[in-house]
Amino acid sequence: METATQERTSRTFDEATMPHNDAAAFSLGVAQRLISSLTDLSIVAAKENARLAAELQITALEALHDAHSAALRWQPAWSDACASCRRPTGCRRPRPTRDGVFVKR
Fold first, then answer.
1. What residue segments make up the domains of the chain, in order of their start?
2. Percent of the chain predicted with pLDDT > 70
3. What is the C-alpha to C-alpha distance for residues 90 and 12, in angstroms, rounded to an integer?
């Protein structure tokens, strides 16, 4: 009883020892299988590339959203700081707390 590897090896050897017409057909078959495998690999790589690009784009949009939210949270504190600098008593900047929110003194 032969193993699968032995069968494939003997089949390849038998096909390689065929006359010239059969050898050309064998060569074309090998090339076709190789191109098929490379095409499958290229398709998988393209799908993975598209998935990673989409994931990167989503992450960038989330970061932009977080930065926008932070800017909107800080906007009142900065406008209060600027308003206190315009007072005749001088600039009294708000003091930040541990959570990053400014409070008036």
1. 4-103
2. 57
3. 92
